[in-house]
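Re: the pair you flagged

First of the two:
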Amino acid sequence: MCGTVGADPATPPDQCMALVRGQIDAESVSAPAAVKPALLQVVDQARADGIDLKIVVLDHNPPNDPPLRDVATVVGSDHPDATVLVLSPSFVGSYSTHFPRSTLEIGEDNAKTGNPVVSAQNFLHQLNTPQFPWAALTIVLLIGVLAAVIGTRILQLRARRSATSEHEVEAADSRPEQSV
């Protein structure tokens, strides 16, 4: 992370993170100078789409991807209404309070290109893609199952009543009449 902000790689990580946070506060992007203008265009496009996007580009890969999500969470804590994208050459991490984790994960998968600008564009595209309303489908299916259960129980009770009524009529017909 230190190389991205122009600091010596031996600089303590907390100091580098402070530099990243400062760049994000100023421009919404912390990235090498070569890709920064193009990433600023992606941020502007996101803003036009109503998304407060912050982008951090790391110059090297961490051992695995959880540190990228950690960086995204730290930046997101400074900007709670923002969606944060953190890119390294092979890994992606994100944070958002506005988008479901499933949408972010799909966006992360689409953002694993190795090119920070294309990755950011792919991620933004996924954020703008409508998602299937799984919650609504689940509610409709639950209501349907509940209606089927209630309907089955009502039919079961009616069948039992009609069988009982027929049995009582037959029993009454088979009894000899008593005279007084």
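Second of the two:
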Amino acid sequence: MSSVVSSKMRAPHARGLPLIGYLPQFMSDPLAICRTLERRHGLAFRTHIMIDVTVLLGPEANQFVLQNRDGIFSSHGGWAYFIDGVFPGAIMSMDDPEHRLQRRIMQQAFKQPALLRYLEHMQPAIAERLSHWQSHPRFMAYEHIKQLTLDIATSVFMGEAVGAEAQRINQAFVDTVEASLALIRLPIPPFSMWRGVKGRETLVAYFQRLMASKRASDSPDFFSQFCHARDEDGHQFSDQEVIDHMIFLMMAAHDTTTSTLTSLLYALAMNPQWQARVREESQALGETLSFEDLARLPALDLCIKEALRLYPPLTSMPRQATADCEFQGHFIAKGTSVGVFPLHTHFMDDYWSSPFRFDPERFARGEHKQHMFQYVPFGGGAHMCLGQHFANVQIKAIMHQLLRGFRWSLPADYELKNQMVPIVKPKDGLPLQWQRMR
């Protein structure tokens, strides 16, 4: 691997169908098509997935692209096609030096003292929402979890409940996310890009109404923290930067967390011995978790890691080459769109024993430590997910109360069918057999 080009041999071309290439397969089952094309072409190939892209597979590829030691891969160039219309100014699509500056300021809101406050703040909101959940033979898990995580996001990020606007705000987030994959990229009604742009307008107006009061407030919520945060050189966010970051982080905090929680509920339903084990851990602790208690849930931690291995919320991560480079003898020209697929890496037989099996103990055995980029549900390098520790706190706080209050199961013959893009979620909403314990 090198940014110095020693060969002009490009990766083999996986052509697929005229015009659309392998787009349908990458949309419906990216793991299967990656494994198929790997067998045919190896760990690097060119294909068409909405755009022409060079796909690089495996931990070495993840490290080459995500670590980006030579600074030759642009996050903005990779993400712009998909999200600029609805998430402009998103931290994950920024390049240095802007990315470094913005991230330094944002980090203030994710340090441990802040996480401790968020944990204290979110637990009453969780308890309030769960108090309304009842036993049901077809409990639609995804829908309920999504509303719960939106409640938490607004409580922790905004310092207040969305209230009567909740449904409208939630739909605005749904529309903006779905617009990222719109085939018609112009905002023409009634197509999804138009709905996404309208959704963004709704969110911008919502945050703008609150901006002045948050600038004047010293409350501990994310919104106020971003309004006042400065880096060591005194740089501060503009109003537009605050709004852009709030919209993106609110989406990430409830959409990707909903994906992970739903996958975890599914895995624990299909593996009742693990559900019993993690429930026993939570029952040994009090109703309310302290920050120190988070480390006293080791089995739950293993299960979260395994759910993220099997069902990472984002199956791929795009970049764009800003200079000619080479990966394992394959020439990549400047301007090439490049994609890495954490989902594929998480199922490679060379690194994982029985990779399709739910086996949380693999993390206790250190199976994930053979290569520093074989397990990358949060990405890697300078663009590693800024909110991963917040997500871990939120997931554990929610699961702790769910495990103490409910049992859930699925028929033995239930078959999970996920929508794989843009964010993984069950097509049927995951209808659990849900039982309140107290």
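The longest strand covers residues 44-49.

-B.
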